[in-house]
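R.M. (postdoc): so does anyone remember the format we settled on? I'll just put the structure tokens first.
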């Protein structure tokens, strides 16, 4: 195989970073790359363990609205109020002390329902949707995670922070997690046109667990192609596992929904995922293409017997690529 100077085949690097307000300014250009997308996503659970998942994506000042989903025993229900949340162009204000995303142009012509406000100050945010449909306060959990995959043509930098949240969603008191993520790559391509989404990603998961002792572990785990394999996991106190070259296994079920998955890091740490009842995020998945599947479930570090108080996992997979790449099953990897 012929390679060129600067060709690293997307071998991913991970490291922690200290959060500042400047991290969230879109004028920053790390490695000469510009911010292409901002994600707010996460989950909370009812007292009986029922999971609710939400996501809001921004490209510049444009947003497609809030996905608010409930995972019951058989399927995912999309809250009908999601269709009335603010979409289109929002107002953005950046200072050295805060980030404020709020309002919407379409409010002026009545096509969007109610207020949107996301206000970030050091170590904290307040998020409100649709005049109280969602009202959350978030507190930063430890350092962030950064993932960089160098390449001459399609490099990517992905940065992620976790916030523990409390508040009210659709009239119910909630406790859970929100990821506040930015991704940078060369201008001119949408995420779904980009090589990581189109080709490299096989099984990428974001997860967060709060244990009964009050400790929190969270991060990103990825099985991919061309070296796009990594663990980037932190606790409130600092990094837990920051490695490249992870390996893993995935068990696919009917219609390519992942039933189980595992990621093994070179440092010896290993995590397992199990799909929960109703965890196939079908409505969200059907709005995408390329064999994409999004699944919710339970993730644990192997041999960690602490009891989980609140847990959230979002796993994205591509079944055809998993088979093409001969990714083994979970039992095969666990038995190594």
């Amino acid at each position: 195989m012929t390679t060129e100077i600067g060709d690293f085949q997307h071998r991913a690097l991970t490291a922690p970073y200290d959060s500042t307000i400047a991290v969230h300014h879109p004028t920053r250009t790390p490695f000469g790359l510009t911010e292409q997308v901002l994600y707010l996503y996460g989950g909370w659970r009812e007292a009986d363990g029922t999971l609710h998942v939400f996501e809001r994506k921004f490209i510049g000042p444009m947003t497609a609205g809030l996905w608010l989903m409930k995972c019951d025993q058989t399927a995912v229900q999309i809250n009908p109020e999601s269709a009335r949340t603010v979409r289109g162009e929002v107002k953005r204000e950046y200072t050295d002390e805060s980030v404020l995303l709020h309002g919407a142009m379409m409010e002026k012509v009545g096509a969007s329902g109610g207020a949107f406000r996301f206000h970030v100050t050091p170590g904290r945010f307040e998020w409100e949707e649709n005049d109280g449909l969602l009202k959350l306060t978030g507190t930063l959990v430890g350092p962030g995670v950064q993932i960089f995959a160098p390449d001459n043509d399609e490099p990517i930098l992905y940065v992620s922070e976790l916030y523990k949240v409390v508040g009210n969603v659709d009239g119910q008191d909630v406790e859970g997690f929100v990821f506040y993520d930015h991704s940078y790559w060369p201008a001119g391509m949408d995420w779904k046109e980009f090589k990581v989404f189109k080709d490299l990603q096989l099984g990428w998961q974001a997860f967060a667990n709060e244990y009964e002792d009050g400790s929190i572990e969270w991060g990103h785990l990825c099985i991919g192609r061309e070296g796009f394999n990594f663990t980037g996991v932190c606790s409130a106190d600092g990094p837990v596992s920051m490695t490249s070259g992870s390996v893993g296994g995935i068990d696919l079920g009917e219609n390519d929904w992942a039933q189980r998955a595992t990621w093994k890091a070179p440092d010896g740490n290993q995590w397992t995922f199990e799909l929960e009842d109703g965890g196939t995020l079908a409505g969200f998945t059907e709005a995408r293409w390329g064999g994409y599947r999004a699944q919710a479930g339970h993730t644990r570090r192997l041999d960690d017997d602490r009891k989980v108080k609140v847990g959230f996992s979002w796993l994205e997979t591509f079944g055809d690529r998993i088979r093409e790449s001969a990714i083994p099953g979970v039992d095969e990897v666990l038995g190594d």
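R.M.: ...and that's the designed sequence above, right after the tokens. Also worth knowing: The two ends are 30 Å apart (CA to CA). Residues 13-334 form one domain.
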